[in-house]
Amino acid sequence: MGAGRRTCGMLLTFRESVADALRAALEARDLPTDDLGIEEPPADVDAVLASSVAFRLAGDLGAPPPEVAAELAGDVDADDHRFLDRVEPNGPYLNFFPDEAYFRETLSAGLDDDYGRLPDRDTSVVVEHTSANPTGPVHVGRARNPIIGDAVANLLDYAGYDVDRHYYVNDAGRQIAVFTWAYETFDEADLPDPARDRAEYRMVRYYRKGNEFLEEAPDPEVEAAEAEIQAILQGLEAGDEAAYERVGEVVDAVLGGMRECLARLPAEFDEFVRETRFMRDGSTDDVVARLKDHDRSVYEEDAWQLTFEEIDKNLVFLRSDGTSLYTTRDLAHHEWKFANYDRAVTVLGEDHKLQADQLRRTLRMLGNDVDALENVIYSYVDLPEGKMSTREGTGVQLDDLLDEAVARAREEVESRLDDRLRSDELDADDVDRIARQVGVGAVRYDIVAKQPTKGITFEWEQALDFEAQSAPYVQYVHARCCGILNEAGDREPTPDPAPLTTDAERDLLRAVARLPGVVADAADDLEPHRVATYTRELGDRFNRFYRECPVLGADDPETVAARLALVAAARHAMANALDVLGVEAPRSM
RNA sequence: GGGCAUGUGGCCUAGCGGACAGGGCGAGAGGUUCCUAACCUCUAGAUCGCGGGUUCGAAUCCCGCCAUGCCCGCCA
Predict the structure, then answer these.
(1) A494 CB contacts (<8 Å, ≥6 apart)?
(2) Interatomic CA distance for residues A232 and A229, integer angstroms
(3) Are A109 and A565 in contact, with CB atoms under 8 Å apart?
(4) What integer is the mean pLDDT of A518-524?
(5) Which end of chain A is more exposed for a tag (fewer CB within 10 A), N or C?
(6) Which residues pair with A170 in a beta bridge?
(7) Stated in angstroms, how far is A349 CA from B63 C1'?
């Protein structure tokens, strides 16, 4: 399906028409047009868009809002505007109704597999997400990052941006030096069995052992260890190849395992960008040199620091021992992003907000256009008893959550096999497929459907509740669409809205028409959860249609063909909305 | 102490300046000779944390307070 068929969407076009029409009517009367008050009306109003301008103009015109609305409705010339059929006053509101072309084109656009994708914007954006330190298994506390990050990247991709997904790898920090020292020092025989037979689970045992040692061992032994850790850090700073290799071995192993875990979501990356890259290529040194020359930098307590006007906390950018810090390297990293991309989006936990704020201000001081940088901030998922920690080994691993979710989904599928009304048979592969799609989908949907800033306390029962407003509800709609389309045989969909006369059909069609607008708006605000809200609304509409309107058993062939087109459009809208969320759309359930 | 975020029926959540605050779970009552009942219908349940303010209009904006979380490291 070609990009040539991608459109900005009927609703977006209709929205522009409504704005143009209303603006023209207001200008003709010399009224202000700065706030047209265009909104989507409540569900029980048939109009597709409405305006509340009449409230604002009532004062100027010296008439009550309903009178103003009635007059303005008379002024609007619907004929001149694409998709606009008519405008009707309704109390103080103006209700705008689209014409049949709007519905016909929605139906027609909906036949495309790519429905919901917006035209290419010729703008590149790098989405950095996850970027968890390669110290051990991915736990649920930070699982929000890949799930939200992947959805943000998908969303921007659908909205027409050229998206690259990056994982920024901390391979230069103290934690990794500790890890490397511990890996080289301790004997596997002294470690507990790994919780799972995969690299990061085996490796994290050294990390935990090392941290434990540094906390509990006698001082002389700790000092010796610290000297070794320092040697690794200094080696990296000095560009010592041997140091890079030692660290690289640990990082590669752990990261390899973490990637396997993330791939289950699936969250995949175009590039793993290593911090050490910006040490080796000299750009961190360059940043340090420029910062030293800056008016707001000071040399205090043997370290170079940057002061801020509005932040009471200095940013140390060069330690007293001459080594750089995470943020120093991140500055070089971001200048590299600016050089290679039009926009940069970073998904990060709320604990990084201060650091992100300092980073942004410092980048501006260094002469960068920081409008290109946007953050998506999320709160961590905590356990009822507190925070999850890789170092302390507290927390629920993402692998375990996914395993449990898939297992429960399998139980559900199997328990339903007996009382299926449907004649088709699900074989063992179907059961596997459905269990995975539903189980993983439920976990992702549960996370991505919520506003990221809200805190989540992890509870098994809640995370695995398939009954609630969840992935299966919305996935089931897709499966139902596929079921109908599969049985249609040689009866072809026809994108003609004329036979679609019931409220249930029109409501569904209106919901289908909204997808491109939802994608555009959600992408503008980097809010993928709005797409999840949309899937629920689309699902509600579809289920009502399904109940009230037989498709294959409709009275005449024209209605069958039109309803088939509506089902196909609903299917593509749902499949692509789910694709944005990173949730699979099952063909059968 | 300072900064940032969050606070919507028992629980989870949408809405974030406009039409009666939508859903879901849980509770109660129903629906399947018909394209998959992982569905649908109905009932009960909300001082939108509290108090002020701005506005024709506030869950939504502003101020204060309370509660919770995060941050305030030459860690990341």
Answers:
(1) A558, A561, A562, A564, A565
(2) 5
(3) no
(4) 96
(5) N
(6) none
(7) 29
Query: What is residue A59's predicted lDDT score, i.e. its pLDDT?
Result: 84
The predicted pLDDT at position A418 comes to 72
At residue A469 the predicted structure's pLDDT band, cuts being 50, 70 and 90, is confident
With distances taken from each CA to the C1' atom of nucleotide B4, the closest residue turns out to be A353
What lies within 8 Å, CB to CB, of A343 at 6+ separation is: A123, A124, A125, A126, A161, A372, A373, A374
Percent of chain A with pLDDT over 90: 85
Cβ of A29 less than 7 A from strand B = no
A170 touches strand B (CB under 7 A): yes
A540, exposed or middle or buried, with CB in 10 Å at 0-12, 13-18, 19+?
middle
Q: Do domains A3-98 and A129-382 have the same CATH topology?
A: no
Query: Which residue approaches B36 most closely, CA to C1'?
Result: A422
A145-159 pLDDT, tens digit each: 999 999 999 999 999
Q: Gap from A323 CA to B68 C1', in Å?
A: 38
Answer whether any strand B atom is within 7 A of the Cβ of A340: no
Q: Flag residues 307-326 of A with CB < 7 Å from strand B.
A: 312-314, 316, 319-321, 325-326
Bridge partners of A394?
Answer: A389
C-alpha distances (whole Å) from A224 to each of A96, A152, A184, A221 are 76, 45, 14, 5
From the CA of A299 to the C1' of B49: give the distance in Å.
46
Locate A530 and state its tokens: 């709005």
Distance CA A243, CA A249 (A): 10
CATH architecture of A402-581: Orthogonal Bundle (1.10)
Domain range A129-382, its CATH number among 3.30.70.1350, 3.40.190.10, 3.40.50.1000, 3.40.50.620: 3.40.50.620
A425 CB-to-strand B distance under 7 Å: no
Residue A425 CA to nucleotide B1 C1', Å? 67
- Give me the CATH topology for the region A3-98: Gyrase A; domain 2 (3.30.1360)
Mean pLDDT of A338-352: 97
pLDDT tens by residue, A158-216: 999 999 999 999 999 889 999 999 999 999 999 999 999 999 999 999 999 999 999 99
Given a contact cutoff of 8 angstroms between Cβ atoms, the answer to whether A379 and A456 are in contact is yes
A44 pLDDT tier (thresholds 50, 70, 90): confident
Ordered alpha helix ranges (H), A453-528: 460-463, 471-487, 503-524
Where are the domains positioned within chain A? Answer: 3-98, 129-382, 402-581
pLDDT at A420: 64
A4 pLDDT band, cuts 50/70/90, is very low
Residue nearest B57 (alpha carbon to C1'):
A55
